[in-house]
Design a protein that fits this description.
This protein is of the alpha/beta class. The chain has 13 helices and 11 strands. It has 2 domains: 219 residues, 3-Layer(aba) Sandwich (Aspartate Aminotransferase, domain 2), CATH 3.40.640; 112 residues, Aspartate Aminotransferase, domain 1 (Alpha-Beta Complex), CATH 3.90.1150.10. The strands form 3 sheets. It has a 7-stranded mixed β-sheet, with helices on both faces. Strands 6-7 form a two-stranded antiparallel sheet. α4 links the parallel β2 and β3.
Length: 344
């Protein structure tokens, strides 16, 4: 079976974790601080704060902006529920918008129409490794949180995704671009926001009391991410190589292939295609020993029993994510192409 996702672990990753285990210091420590410094440098911002998950990163980002009851947060419907949860954690109201069906991303035009006098923040996910039109979105005058869970290392006109918004977040879930089982990061150039997030991340040894959280990352996870961070350019190169095989092999087949607007770099965290019958394709691929999935399990508006998101509905009904990860071989990639062509 060719699995849909696969963890990228090599001997040097294991050795990094073993060094931490042998040191006897497992909690937040030097490995975490080193990871913060190196990630901030990679993205091109001044500060980074490591946390326990991408969800924690979103939660703390909203809190640092003062988002709460009575506030609205604009977010695309075509995302996982982690974003919806974070909005509800702070008592705010989600304002859902439709997507561009060619890039799977929210657009500045859709966001502009959704802005009200209650809009306190915009969360902009760069879906599947392709950045949104973030350079236009940040001009709308509303605090922007870039969700780079899929897109660490991607660029927009030569500038790293995650360096445009007031804040940006990363996820280090097992099958993300950099995977450590769990973990997350908040990045920003704003000293005040970062100071608030560092204060909220942990609750111990504080002179005053306020509600704080146990959102720290361990040195065990940080060591694993640090090892993988050194290999990120290689990971991205392998993903692009596989994506090139898919794009060439499926050209002319009745399937919508990824569209990459000029100036935006796609790093292919996911390779999603659009077909007439996604359930049939996934079932037939399974019979051939190839696991495919919906790239988004269910849009937010469907969880909330809302209507009026035709582009999101169309994409959700038709989109299929096919395997793509650094350890996928060229031979496996061609096998996947052949299977899709035979079925379609």
């Amino acid at each position: 079976m060719i699995t849909h996702s696969k963890v990228a672990l090599e001997e040097d990753d294991l050795n990094g974790v073993l060094r931490v285990l042998r040191s006897g210091h497992l909690a937040q420590g030097d490995a975490v601080f080193s990871l913060e410094d190196k990630t901030a440098s990679l993205v091109g911002v001044n500060h980074a704060v490591a946390v326990s998950s991408g969800s924690a990163a979103l939660h703390l980002s909203l809190l640092s902006l003062g988002v709460g009851k009575g506030s609205e947060v604009i977010v695309p419907s075509y995302v996982c529920t982690a974003l919806l949860n974070a909005i509800h954690y702070v008592g705010a109201t989600p304002s859902l918008v439709d997507i561009d069906p060619h890039t799977y991303n929210v657009t500045s035009e859709a966001i502009r129409k959704a802005i009200t006098d209650k809009t306190a923040a915009i969360i902009v996910p760069h879906m599947f490794g392709l950045p949104a039109d973030i350079d236009a979105i940040v001009t709308l005058g509303i605090p922007v949180i870039e969700d780079c869970a899929h897109s660490v290392g991607a660029t927009v006109n030569g500038k790293k995704a995650g360096s445009f918004g007031w804040l940006s977040i990363l996820s280090f879930y097992a099958t993300k671009m950099l995977g450590a089982g769990e973990g997350g990061m908040v990045l920003s150039n704003d000293d005040r926001l970062i100071e608030a997030i560092r204060d909220l991340r942990g609750y111990d040894e504080r002179h005053t009391y306020r509600v704080r959280y146990n959102y720290k990352l361990t040195d065990i996870q940080a060591a694993l991410i640090l090892s993988q961070l050194e290999k990120l350019p290689t990971f991205i190169g392998k993903r692009k190589e596989i994506a090139s095989i898919y794009s060439r092999g499926l050209d002319g087949v009745r399937a919508g292939l990824p569209v990459v607007p000029r100036g935006r770099e796609h790093i292919y965290y996911r390779y999603a295609i659009l077909v007439e019958d996604s359930a049939l394709l996934m079932a037939e691929m399974e019979k051939r020993g190839i696991e495919c999935r919906r790239p988004v399990f269910k849009p937010l508006h469907r969880y909330l029993s809302l209507s009026g998101y035709p582009k999101t509905d169309s994409v959700w009904e038709r989109a299929v994510s096919i395997p793509i990860y650094p350890s996928l071989t060229v031979e496996e990639a061609h096998r996947i192409v052949d299977a899709i062509k035979a079925i379609l």
